[in-house]
Amino acid sequence: MSAPGQEHEHVSVERAAVEGACSECGESQLRRYPVLSEGGWYRVVKCESCLHSESREPDPVGPVVLASVVLV
Ligand SMILES: [Zn+2]
Fold first, then answer.
1. What is the chain's pLDDT, residue by residue, as a tens digit (72 residues)?
2. What is the Å distance from ligand 1's center to 43 Cα?
3. 49 Cα–ligand 1 center, Å
4. How far is the CA of 42 from the centre of ligand 1 (A)?
């Protein structure tokens, strides 16, 4: 019973491609995206091939995407 054109409703942020290869499997499938966890927003770089977390750092600002939604 969902409205048409809402197939992406569960995806709230863009996953940006990151240059470089995964240190675990060597695939160039790294993606960077913000995640919200217990300590607030984090910016993670994760391999889409083996799901290895290449890096994970606090991002107090959070994703710009959500900020613009709030302003609307
Ligand atoms: Zn990998």
1. 555 555 555 555 678 999 999 999 999 999 999 888 888 899 999 999 999 999 999 988 777 655 555 555
2. 17
3. 5
4. 20
**How far apart are the C-alpha atoms of 21 and 54, rounded to whole Å?**
9
Q: Looking up tokens 């969902």, which residue turns up?
A: 2
Taking CA atoms, 21 is separated from 17, 30, 40, in Å, by: 11, 7, 27
**56: CA distance to ligand 1 center in Å?**
15
Give distance in angstroms: CA of 14 to centre of ligand 1: 20
**Helix, strand, coil fractions of the chain, as percent rounded to 5:** 10, 35, 55
